[in-house]
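During data preparation, a discrete fold description was generated, and the record follows.
___
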Amino acid sequence: MYVPNEDIKIPSPDTIVWKYLDLSKFLDLLLCRQLFMARSDKFEDQYEGTFSEPTYEELKKVSENNPGFLLYHKSHRKNVVISSWHINEYESFAMWQIFTKNNEGLAIQSTIGRMQEALAPELRYEQHIGAVKYIDYKREYVPLDNSFFPYLFKRKSFQYEGEVRIISDLSDQNIYINEGIKANVDINKLIDKIYIHPKSENWYKNLVIQLMQQLGFDFTIEKSDLESDIFL
């Protein structure tokens, strides 16, 4: 029998979060003042927004007299959009490796509280912020208490991501979503600090600083801890 999972975490406002991205995506964020949110069924993980095996077995029983029940949950994924962030008190070498290339890229440092304030202007649809819980999809249940829950659970293989998500359900918006949507966001509230790739060349770092200044932003740029001098 399905038992609700009670440790879905709502991070505290002072929780530090990161977003690692290349320069083109960073400039798009600054120029448009909008945060890209990807359609959930376009993620690399094919299980995104789906259910674990025990939950699926329960759903099949529920849908015996309602064949459209499972079909709805399957089609619902194309109406859910997600912005993924990384929870960590410190910057992550692994995240630099995964999300940036050629020793170029940036990391935005923010907090859950900043994120909530930055998204406040977006009133067209409901948004939910939550930390992803990593479970064994062969043995553990994905709760069904809330339509956002299937997007807050992933397989343990992805535990290294330490992910927190902004999730929006656009089912009532009557719009077609291709790869995703852009949500209005207050950039100055969202971004606390900027870290430039620790192995980037000086010309690249100067370019990032110059571009931000030309666009009228003066974010604090921190030196990466991975760039620190060694002591012998």
